[in-house]
Amino acid sequence: MTDHTVKAYDNELEALGRKIAEMGGIAEQMLSNAMDALATLDTSLARTTVAMDQRLDILQRDVEEQAILTIAKRQPLAADLREIIAAIRISGDLERVGDLAKNIAKRALKLSGETRLPRAVVGLKSMHEAAAMLLKDALDAYALRDVERARMVWTHDVELDALEDSVFRDLLTFMMEDPRNISFCAHLLFCSKNIERIGDHSTNIAETVVYLVTGETLPMDRPKGPSPAADYLPLPK
Amino acid sequence: MTDHTVKAYDNELEALGRKIAEMGGIAEQMLSNAMDALATLDTSLARTTVAMDQRLDILQRDVEEQAILTIAKRQPLAADLREIIAAIRISGDLERVGDLAKNIAKRALKLSGETRLPRAVVGLKSMHEAAAMLLKDALDAYALRDVERARMVWTHDVELDALEDSVFRDLLTFMMEDPRNISFCAHLLFCSKNIERIGDHSTNIAETVVYLVTGETLPMDRPKGPSPAADYLPLPK
After folding, report:
1. How would you class B88 by CB atoms within 10 Å of its CB: exposed for 0-12, middle for 13-18, buried for 19 or more?
2. B117: phi > 0 → left, psi -120 to 50 → alpha, else beta; which?
3. How far apart, in whole angstroms, are the C-alpha atoms of residue B66 and residue B155?
4. What is d(CA B150, CA B222) in angstroms, rounded to the nearest whole number?
5. Chain A residues inside the 8 Å CB shell of B57
6. CA-based nearest distance B106→chain A, Å
7. Taking a C-beta distance cutoff of 8 angstroms, is the pair B43, B78 a contact?
8. What's the rounded Cα separation, in Å, for the pair A96 and A134?
9. Prediction ipTM score
10. Are B186 and A168 an interchain contact pair (Cβ–Cβ within 8 Å)?
11. Residue in A234, A210, A224, A214 with CA at minimum distance from that of residue A89
């Protein structure tokens, strides 16, 4: 390759990274907005959050398109190919995080007409804090190519799963206490599941960072959405 | 390209198609098994269903790996590139269908210790029939490159969404009738959401078939997971 070609190629890889960073920022903002909208039943904020999702969808398609065209044009090997594959995967996970935040915002819209039970939302706040931290650490791990931080995300996701179990039991208890709580809490059950899955996607991102930096995949013993490990893309480091 | 190279290339594309077909068969079987396990609370069948998911994960990674290597090696244009991109997308959707069926099977395991309410499962059976039909039609549309059938899937998914709304209300009613139904029905709420999302993935597959055959994307007015339409991969037909 000429210097000129190499520079164009570098620019393409950098453009992918910038789009992922933009997607990460939007996904974090959507999660934060959706949880605020849910806590305050702010329908205007909920609608804004739903509307933000379209930008994420467009960015994901951009990343996928640009990544595939780069593979076809440059025929990259090893580390560069991992860089591009990582961009495709992470953009997919961030698009899903946006969908899940959008789902929470939509629940906030549905709940605005229901009898409220503020104490039922408390457990969801703890889940939100844990999930926001996982997402931030996963995005930082990607930005810094920090394998240790990525492994921490992978380890800490179980705490969010445990929180979800606890919230599930609490919500069922509120429902049993008073049938008037049933509808409100049923919607919150879905919100809690959505937050838990944002943790799963953060963990997926962390796994992708480990793959990106080391060429290795993490073992399969994580409870959710594991990779079939060693047999995947055995590319030279 | 020499004839030999062209043949090797054709073989690669055919191998992708065969893997997608295998994935489709497994996903359909998992959905059917999971719903049987849920209806009868058959823990052995539920465990078998959970175990089947690993094969789908491996196949998805195979398809992704093979597709990307083919793009890098052959630098395909237009129709062939769409073929490969479609394989990546459809394998992703089928892997998610498997996850969702696995989730239902896991709920069947959790429910085996709960007080049962057989009439609560009835609505889920209707949802299952609708979702199984959408999935079958989407897979047939892919196998036959049948755009009309794909558009039918896209149109009919709203019926499954309406069924889910109805099941949601029914389950809430059962919960309000008797607090002893709450735990059982809370788990069924998640199963019903899982089935509804299998419909969404079937619709994604149908959208991919339309893109594969025509090079066009469907408009954005579907309720869930729309494509940012016209700006995506504007490749010549």
Report:
1. buried
2. beta
3. 32
4. 14
5. 226-228
6. 12
7. no
8. 15
9. 0.85
10. yes
11. A210
Residue A127 — φ and ψ, nearest 5°?
-60, -40
CATH of A3-231, one of 1.20.58.220, 1.10.940.10, 3.40.50.720, 1.10.8.60: 1.20.58.220
How close B178 gets to chain A, by Cα (Å)? 9
**Domain range summary for chain B, segments of one domain joined by +:** 3-231
d(CA B3, CA A144): 47
Confidence of residue B111 (pLDDT cuts 50, 70, 90): very high
Q: Please give the average per-residue pLDDT across B80-92, as a whole number.
A: 92
Q: Which residue has the tokens 């339409």?
A: B229
Report the chain B residue with the minimal C-alpha distance to residue A183: B172
Identity at B177, one-letter amino acid code: E
From the number of C-beta atoms within 10 Å of its C-beta (0-12, 13-18, 19+), residue A109 rates as: middle
- pLDDT, tens digit, 9 for 90 and up, residues A97-111: 999 999 999 999 999
Give the span between the Cα atoms of A171 and A184, in whole angstroms. Answer: 9
CB A132 within 8 A of CB A196: no
Q: Which of A65, A72, A190 sits opposite B232 (nearest CB)?
A: A65
Chosen for mutation from A61, A69, A73 (greatest number of chain B CBs closer than 10 Å) is A61
Residues of B whose CB is below 8 A from A233: 61, 65
Q: Which two tokens stand for residue B72?
A: 């890098």
